[in-house]
Amino acid sequence: MKPDLATIWEWLGEVPDPEIPVISVVDLGIIRDVVWDGDVLEVAITPTYSGCPATSIINLDVETALRAHGLDNIRLKRQLSPPWTTDWLSAKGASKLEAYGISPPSPAGGPSRCPRCASTDLQRVSQFGSTPCKAHWRCLSCLEPFDYFKCI
Amino acid sequence: MDNASLFQCLLRFGDNTLVLGHRISEWCGKAPALEEDIALANTALDLIGQTQMWLGYAAEVEGADRSADDLAMLRDVWDFRNILMVERPNIDFGHTIMRQFLFDAYHHAQLTALSRSSDPRIAEIAAKSVKEATYHLDRSAETVIALGDGTDVSHAKMQNALDLLWPYAGEMFESDDVDAQMAASGIAPDPATLRDAWDLRVRDTLSLATLNIPEDNFAHKGGRTGARHTEHLGHMLTQMQWLQRAYPGAVW
């Protein structure tokens, strides 16, 4: 019996992002579509950044998770258009990021507050950070450095 | 429009990002500051990712059973179609950043136009890439201003870099028969049409950086047509392609 799509979305919601395991690939907004094509389950995944090295690991993790739930006929499709945007990060994902110490993306172009002490006295250290999707900032109140999830 | 021209056009996009991506990855582990090291490596990563998409599509269009990896690792100098500027050695950090800025301003204008391509594959790759190029341009422009309008030493290095690189900028806007075919079928803009937007952006930033644009617009060319490359590309390929040259057909 084929599991329904809502169940499959739930399963995918438990697959952590390999670089930021506190959020799932669904929270990140990179799973664009899940459909049954006859007996084949097709999952459309969009890359965050063109060269993000986590992309192939994400595909492997998604496939492994679905196989663990007994699905064998799986096809992963790379979907480029429309390009990924941080607008697709779920609200749940954004609050989990902040609790984890990563400031979530903000349309203003920089973090709205320090994820540790909530101060707004912040300074950018570098436009790039530990992964392609993050920049490096520091809080001038508690003096701790932190990652900011870039808004694109 | 024939497939051979489309293939050439895609090589021009993919070879620019491949060669520049490799060049700036040479800074990995030895940039002047940790933040700059990370920034250059991340920019390189974006460019190599874009290369996979351009050369992947080029390989499909060619239909000769070659992959993106084959095109990157198994071609020699004369088959590369990148502009000469991106194959130049890094020299120093100032030169690297100046080259990055001149390229980013061009890349951003080019990708913006390509995101409206009549070829849907090109349009989607460009729409993805332009987001990354926007970020690259923000950073390289900011860094050019900081260093140009910085100390006497940093100013002199940036002016020297601009003087060295300016004769390589003109090739970005050269057009030939391939470009005319692409423009006629709405696939890619005639490069000459990108010059105004580029000029505006570059002149504005360089003026804030207190740098003087050389008056002579002489342009070295030959890279994007494949007529001639500089001696530097061959040396770069001996490193980039070392593994495939030493162990042909080796796989991960």
Largest sheet of chain B: none
Sheet with the most strands, sense and barrel status of chain A: 4 strands, mixed
What is the count of distinct domains of chain B?
1
Order of helices and strands of chain B: HHHHHHHHHHH
The CATH class designation of chain B is Mainly Alpha
Unreliably modeled segments of chain A: none
Q: Tell me what portion of residues of chain A adopts beta-strand conformation.
A: 15-25%
Question: Would you tell me which CATH topology of the largest domain in chain A applies?
Answer: GMP Synthetase, Chain A, domain 3
Biggest interface between protein chains, with counts per chain?
A-B, 21 and 28 residues
The neighbouring-strand order within the major sheet of chain A is 4-7-6-5
The CATH class label of the largest domain in chain A is: Alpha Beta
CATH architecture grouping of chain B:
Up-down Bundle
Count all strands of chain A and give the number: 7
Q: Return the average pLDDT of chain B rounded to an integer.
A: 96
Q: Quickly give the CATH architecture of the largest domain in chain A.
A: 2-Layer Sandwich
How much helicity do the residues of chain B have? 55-70%
Number of separate helices of chain B: 11
Write the layout of secondary structure elements.
The complex is a heterodimer of chains A (152) and B (252).
Chain A: H1 5-12, E1 31-37, E2 40-45, H2 54-68, E3 74-78, H3 91-100, E4 102-103, E5 122-126, E6 134-139, E7 145-149
Parallel strand pairs in A: 2-3, 4-7
Antiparallel strand pairs in A: 1-2, 5-6, 6-7
Chain B: H1 3-25, H2 34-62, H3 68-73, H4 84-87, H5 93-114, H6 120-148, H7 152-169, H8 177-184, H9 195-208, H10 231-240, H11 242-246
Structure description:
The complex is a heterodimer of chains A (152) and B (252). Chain A is α/β, with parallel strands linked by helices and 152 residues long. Chain A folds into 2 domains: 5-84, GMP Synthetase, Chain A, domain 3 (2-Layer Sandwich); 91-149, no CATH class. Chain A is built from 3 helices and 7 strands, in the order H-E-E-H-E-H-E-E-E-E. A 4-stranded mixed β-sheet of chain A has the order 4-7-6-5. The longest helix of chain A is centred in the middle third of the chain and has 15 residues, at 54-68. Chain A starts with a helix and ends with a strand. The relative contact order of chain A is 0.15. By secondary structure, chain B is mainly alpha-helical. Chain B has a single domain (3-246), classed as Up-down Bundle (Ferritin). Helix content of chain B is 67%, strand content 0%. Chain B has helices spanning 3-25, 34-62, 68-73, 84-87, 93-114, 120-148, 152-169, 177-184, 195-208, 231-240, 242-246. In chain B, helix 1 (3-25) packs antiparallel against helix 2, helix 1 (3-25) crosses helix 8 and helix 5 crosses helix 7. The mean pLDDT of chain B is 96. Chain A binds chain B through residues 47, 49-53, 80-84, 125-130, 132, 136, 150, 152, and chain B through 35-36, 38-39, 41-50, 52-53, 120, 123-125, 127-129, 131-132, 135, 138-139.
